[in-house]
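Is it possible to get an amino acid sequence alongside its tokenized fold?
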Amino acid sequence: SVWLLSQIPEPKISDVKHRGLRRPMSADDRRRAFATYGHGLSMVLLAYILLTVMRSIRDDFAVEIWRDLGEAGKPAIFAQSELLVMFGVVAVNAAAILIRDNRKALQVAVSTMIGGFALVLLAILAYRQNWLSAFPFMVLLGLGMYVPYVSIHTTIFERMIAAFRSTGNIGYLMYLADAMGYLGYVGVMLMKNVGGQRLDFLEFFLRASMFMAIVSIGLMFCGFVYFRRKLPPPASVALASST
């Protein structure tokens, strides 16, 4: 993998023109970046923290969740469900490359995240109404969580830098997201272990997932409005590219 990374060619002039100049960020660069799109970035980070917690619970406690769903003792079901989730997540997020305009791609990515959180809500409501069995429920839940999770890694930050014509890279933004997201998950695990209370794990998971989805939809909707207003007009982007 390291050898393959070393074979990646340097960006072409057309790459720099389309995506902006990428270089290591100093402390001043990081402060300027946060000042430029800090409000929108904060909304994305808050949604990412909630999403990381619930995605991690779904993965780390999959045995308990499947057991409570009535599917205990079926190890093959892990591969079957996650394979479908993987194909769906890759297809949705890979399609973002078809959108050349960075402004539009960023807005579509935020809208896709909102759609993922909405899918989580719909899947839980359908399961509670006995419209879904355990297997399609877990597949839809996985799609609803992983589509926005991967979108942040592959599209949101990348297109944000390109759309704002910032000089930097996504390393700083990914550090913020992952550091805060996994710190939140550690905090939840500590409270769970220290609390010492036995609980209905499936019911806790469903309620926490609904809370995550509802709050995240609100955050990402506000983020969509923010980016729509804050992004420079296409003419400004073209001028910045030419200079």
